Every structure is written in C-alpha cells, then in structure tokens.
Amino acid sequence: MADIISVHHYPHPRIRRLITGLHLVALILAVVAIVVELGLGVVAGPLLFGMALFTAIMLIPLLMRTVLHPEIELTADGLTLHPMIWKAQFVPWKAIIGKTEHPLLFNNEATGRLLYGKRYRPREGMVIVVNDGARLLPIYRILGSVAGAGNRSAFAISSTTHTGYEVLRDAILQHLDGSITL
C-alpha cells in the first residue's frame, strides 16, 4: 500500500461519533422492529406485514447515510473510504469514472448569513461515481441511484463534511480529467 498523502476527516469528530452511534441504534431498532412486526403479523393480522415492509423501506435512507460522506485517505494509488459503520475500502484512481452534482446540498444565502454572519461560505460538494471494478459495498449503489448515476456505486464529498475539501476535490478532479460528468 502506498504512503498516505492526505487525510480528510469529518470536521467535528465528536459529532461524527455521536451520529455513528445513533445510526447503529436506529439500524438495530429497525431490524428488531421488522422481526417483531413479522412475528406479530403471523399472530395478529396482515396489517403488521405492511408495517414491516414500511420499516424495511425506512432502512434505505439510514443505510445510505452510513456511506454518504466517508472519511477519505488519499494515496498515490487511489483513495481509501472509511464509512461510518462498515469496513474501509480502497478505490484505485482508475476506478473513478465520473462525477455529478451533489443532490442533497442546498445553499440559502440569507439563512447562511443569519447563522454564520461574515463567516458564511456557500457549501460545495459533488458525488464521485465509481465503476464496478472497485467492488464497493452494495450500499454505495443506493447513493449512485439517488445521485442520478444509474446502478453505479458512488460516494459524496462536501465542504461541510471533509476537512481540506479543496485539496480532496482537486486531487479527485485531477484524476478525472478524461472521465465523464453525469
């Protein structure tokens, strides 16, 4: 493995740990709720099967959030993604095939100036699309679908979720020079 060039963590590590813990609790509760609803559906009635289906559908955004903005290590060979819960995965530079606009970023200058005053800076971000050769977890495909990249794996970077965002963005764009913008 090549030496690490730069590391891009979440700006507030305590908040990241708190969010990670809350996501774990929510995922565990949702899975337990599905099992209980299915069990009670057999005894009490078919309405609980619908509730189990609804709970399972509600798992999708929770799972997507666990891989949405992974912490990233840059190396000469590629980048290593460190999602909230799952194991770290290496993505070689050649596996990055494109970028698209971040669908969840919204800038409202009036509210930003009200909250941050002179320190207000519009949020920037993009979704990086990865080919199947990188063998990312299937959860990354959910994000690719939401971002309009079809059934491809993807991860997002943002100025509010990564320290040194400009360095990270420039490094990724440097390796994307001949690739597509979705």
Keywords:
44% helix, 182 residues, single chain, alpha+beta, 5 helices, PH-domain like, 4-stranded mixed sheet, globular
Question: How would you characterize this protein structure?
Answer:
- The chain has 182 residues and is of the alpha+beta class.
- It folds into 2 domains: 11-64; 69-182, PH-domain like (Roll), CATH 2.30.29.
- It has 5 helices and 8 strands; from the N terminus they run E-H-H-E-E-E-E-H-E-H-E-H-E.
- Strands 1-2-3-4 form a 4-stranded antiparallel beta sheet, with helices on one face. Strands 7-6-5-8 form a 4-stranded mixed beta sheet.
- Helix 1 packs antiparallel against helix 2 (47-68) and helix 2 crosses helix 4 (139-146).
- The longest helix has 31 residues, at 13-43.
- It is globular and about 60 Å long.
- 21% of the residues are buried.
- The model has no long low-confidence stretch (mean pLDDT 87).
